[in-house]
Amino acid sequence: MVTPARLSPFAAAGWWALDYLDAAKQQLRVLTVPKTPKRWAIGDAGKPTILLLPGVYEHWSFMAPLGDALNTHGYRVQVAHGLGANLLAIPETAERVWRALARIPTPPEGRVVVAHSKGGLIGKRLLVRDVDHRLDLRGLVAIATPFRGARLARYLLDPSMREFDPDSATIVELSSVASVNSRIVSIFGVFDPHLPEGSSLAGATNRLLPVAGHFRILSAPETASAVIAGVESLSAPPEAVAEAAAEVVAAAAESEAEAEAEAEAEAEAEATIAQTSSKGRA
């Protein structure tokens, strides 16, 4: 399991300050980017449409740099309006997003969710519900998402933050569902002041970037490159992604079986040599 680095208290405090300074700047972006850019509606019809989901206390504009980067690479980009600062419970928010997506035509090449923090948990819940591929959700690219929860949330009074407690019903429920993990790309930095547990997810594609911060990671060029690569890897239909994952699992099992067979053969050879040596001494 990949986890962020441990820093000295002084270094961690410095990154905390820089991270919140960046968050404050991104909060101001809502004033300069009040509406989604019209160009985001234009893209390559042969590529999936991107749905951006921000984290808690975040407006969709937090993810505007990633939206621009994806659109530049030919992807049409959508946002879920009406979420406000994303303070509602994860199940309720996922339900709202589901209903909103169900009301509009499904893009020919499906959708890929690109999400930050809490948005990644909402995205995973959407994947779990889309078992019949009604919304044709190809996968999820999650950035700094607390898939295993965040123990720091236990000490907070805000209900919207307490939801990230590792023992909360939502985290426990989502953690117990691994069937969609192969369709998730989890991206995180070397240090996240909010998630000491890290964002690594078993069964998913985990990408550790040389970036620090829970918010600063959103505007890092390394993140944009990793997100685009993640979206490209998930662009195939769910059936094809599942088939590819099954092939990887089968190949790993075959490799493990071969290794066990070789180990047994070596053990038998060593036993034969030991018996021969014993007879020679006799």
Task: Give a quick precis of the structure.
This protein has 282 residues and is α/β, with parallel strands linked by helices. It has helices at residues 9-32, 64-72, 90-102, 118-129, 159-162, 169-175, 221-233, 238-281, and strands spanning 49-53, 77-79, 111-116, 137-143, 184-191, 205-212.
Account of the protein in words:
The protein has 282 residues and is α/β, with parallel strands linked by helices. The protein has 2 domains: 227 residues, Alpha/Beta hydrolase fold, catalytic domain (Rossmann fold); 46 residues. It has 8 helices and 6 strands; from the N terminus they run αβαβαβαβααββαα. A 6-stranded parallel beta sheet has the order 2-1-3-4-5-6, with helices on both faces. The chain is globular, with a radius of gyration of 23 Å.
Give me the secondary-structure topology.
Layout: H1 9-32, E1 49-53, H2 64-72, E2 77-79, H3 90-102, E3 111-116, H4 118-129, E4 137-143, H5 159-162, H6 169-175, E5 184-191, E6 205-212, H7 221-233, H8 238-281
Parallel strand pairs: 1-2, 1-3, 3-4, 4-5, 5-6
Helix pairs in contact: 2-7, 3-4
